Amino acid sequence: MPDERQHDSGAGKGKVYEPPQVTRVTLRPEEAVLGACKTVSISGVGSGSNPCAYPVPCPNPGS
Amino acid sequence: MCISGSLPEPGFLTMATTDTLVRAEGAQLSPPQLDPFPLDSRAGKRDSLAIRVAGNVLGLFAERGLQMAIGEELKQFAVDPNSADIRMSVAWTEKLDVPRREPQFDSGGLWSVFDEEGGYRFVFSSPSLGAGPYKAAWLDFEFKTGRLDLFRPYFDARRPVYPLEYPLDELVMIHRLARGEGVEIHGLGVVDGVGRGHLFVGHSGAGKSTLARLWQQEPGALILSDDRIILRECAGQIWMHGTPWHGDVGVASPQAAPLHRAYLIEHGSRCELIELSKAQAAAEFLARCFVPHYSAEAMDFSLQFLGRVARETPCFLFRFLPDCRAVEAICRAAA
Questions:
Q1: pLDDT tens, B282-322?
Q2: B244, exposed or middle or buried, with CB in 10 Å at 0-12, 13-18, 19+?
Q3: What pLDDT shows up at residue B6?
Q4: For residues A3 and A14, what is the distance between their CA atoms, to the nearest angstrom?
Q5: B187 C-beta neighbours (distance < 10 Å), count
Q6: Taking CB atoms and an 8 Å cutoff, what residues of chain B touch A29?
Q7: Is the ipTM of this complex over 0.90?
Q8: Does A50 contact B129 at a Cβ distance shorter than 8 Å?
Q9: Beta bridge partners of B78
Q10: Which of B110, B156, B248 is facing A36, going by the closest CB pair?
Q11: Between A and B, how many CB-CB pairs are < 8 A?
Q12: Closest to B293 (Cβ–Cβ): which among A33, A39, A57?
């Protein structure tokens, strides 16, 4: 494998090496895992448009 | 200019032909006519049903005496149950237990999943109903066949039920997609007036509903969903598919379009588009996807797939104001 530095020091061609970078992103677990019911306007156990067959109001609003 | 209404005949293989999406000056979008099985005279009760989402047909086949129905918003996704490529039987049960072993994954909410007999067993429970589960689903590892048991005491058996109700419908779909088909993402999908697909990705509160309402005012624009979009590859292109799982705006469409641009959205003090690096875009989208996080294979595929999406699609951070300038900025930049 040719060394990147040899490329750079040669004819001035080639890509400059960029080390890998850690990218941090925000995850919302409660949304990501589909763990909770949706709001009343969205299809789901607690939905108004898709009435729930369960005997009590759903306590699990989610994404 | 706008996109015309319906897709060709049902079936994902025909999606390749949707690049024939007709451009018609001033034409109005007509609701897709994809429900060849309208609800019958028994007030919507029937013993089998199926929905097609992003090319996958999920069919339910109930035992005698179990009445099923689908909601209004699902009707345009309804197809012939005989065409199902994910087939699940549905039955009442008087006894439903949680397996006496550690789950493979516990969502911390409504569901947990266990390894069981050549497949997965999903168990659903709600604290409002008690400690026991209200339903359980077994699906084979390939997500082709399954069985769903509904705990009868928790249901009003006089009313028809929709056994796939959230989150089971999406769980089946994301597991199936993660087997090499695509990903479901938390986003708003819009096809603009000249047929370009724009995907606006964001957590709850990021502005998907706000943007959806703005796009609703744009002549010729078609919203595929204001909350859930499925990305799949077809004929060498990334396509975005509408889903029945809508957000506050309540828009859902079974149509699809090639993905032109993708945006990570957030509210801002002015409209601005900032190009994202490929790595940043893939990482941000992964954080807003619905994938089986407990499965190494699923995560590996999803990462690869989103990497491809990021490589092949211009991706931006889109900060916007909640007025018509947001739509103008997108159309101007895409032109």
A1: 999 999 999 999 999 999 999 999 999 999 999 999 999 99
A2: buried
A3: 34
A4: 11
A5: 30
A6: 108
A7: no
A8: no
A9: B51
A10: B110
A11: 116
A12: A33
| 8 A C-beta contact, residue B302 and residue B286 | yes
Phi-psi region of B129 (alpha: psi -120 to 50; beta: other; left: phi over 0): alpha
Q: Give the gap in angstroms from C-alpha A48 to the nearest C-alpha of chain B.
A: 10
> Domains in chain B, ordered, with CATH?
48-177 (no CATH), 183-334 (3.40.50)
Q: How far is A63 from chain B (nearest CA, A)?
A: 6
- Contact across the interface for A25 and B284, Cβ inside 8 Å: yes
CA distance B166 to A62: 11
**Structure confidence by residue, pLDDT tens digits, B58-67:** 999 999 889 8
- Do B91 and B147 meet the contact criterion of CB atoms below 8 Å apart? yes
Q: Exposure of B307 by Cβ count < 10 A (0-12 exposed, 13-18 middle, 19+ buried)?
A: middle
**Distance (Å) from the alpha carbon of A7 to chain B's nearest alpha carbon:** 24
Omega into B167 within 30° of 0, i.e. cis?
yes
